[in-house]
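name: query_chain
kind: protein
chains: 1
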Amino acid sequence: MAGAFSRSLGKLNLDTSRFLEGRSLDELSADEVYVLAKVLPGFHKEKRLQVYKGVLQEALKEGYVDYSSSLEVLQQMRQELDITKEEHDLILTELEVEYPTILDPSKQHNREDLLRQESYREAFLDVFIEVAKNHPNQTVVAELVEVMTGEKPIESLDAVLNKLSKDESLPLQQIREEYAITAAEEEEILKTTEPRQLWTTIAYTLDTLNRLEAIAIKRQLIKEATPITVKQELSVEQVAHCQEIFQKFDKDGNNRLSRGELCSVLRVLGCPFSPQRVQEIMDAISEHSNSDSVSFEEFAVLLQSDLGSTNEDQILQWFHLFDADGSGYISLEELHLYIKDIVPNITKAEIENMLKLADTSGDQQISYEEFRDLFQQMTQ
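structure:
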């Protein structure tokens, strides 16, 4: 685990050079890494939790530990970093929110598996580009583009490939065999989601956070539970989005949100409410004191509630969640960093398409004005 610790520590961009005497972090033994962590300036509690989360994430993905063994296997590291059992459990919940399959043994992929699938995707796209360059039937090329961009379902891929000549389709079939890709894997690897749909998911998620925060503020002002005023019935589309958001929060799939689940999701999305504040929100939603969970029906009422319309101040606050470096623009990397917490399996191509949709000026980044205009469309 020392290697994982060093890699996670290196991502913090702390000044370690004066302690290493020309060596790299990778050259340190486990004991040396722990000693460095104790003397390193700026390595406070939040940073320690961040490093521990990185180590735990890598250990789970590589299969070194599972849910039940992780606490014991990482015991020494927890002691060295002063990480409590409760903090360990909270990080596990956060990882499950960000990476829904990470704790599911039947869906875990080792590093070789992930590399195989990523290599297949790159090889497939390379071959596809070569086929498309000078193909005489541009209708077939257009259909392939529609599949690759998500305009047509991935299930129609074989039907489109059957329109290619044997010589044209052979390289695609060969790379399928070379990388031993199953039909289910191919669907997961190549499928894409329309960028407007992804932005809509983001908008609904942030609107939900806005409503949760409004409830918390209202509770603080009134100091007692008050019923949520229902504004209007939800449309079919709104119900679908409500179910999607609820499922992102409800990680154990029991159709109820626990305080731990809600607390973890809020923290991941940039709203680290205290457990007390989360409890107040849950009590307001359920209209019961000391509520231990919230049902889907109670959660749906939240999205019907009249808590005021989204204004520019709120949109600006959302913009700052994306604009990590405070430059006044959202880069492709910043877009990926924030969105992966909401849509963990999103592809690079899908994020690029999201940026293109919002970037009306064509400067490869999203200004506040572009972000505002897009979100005003989404929340109308």
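note: The chain has a mean pLDDT of 75.
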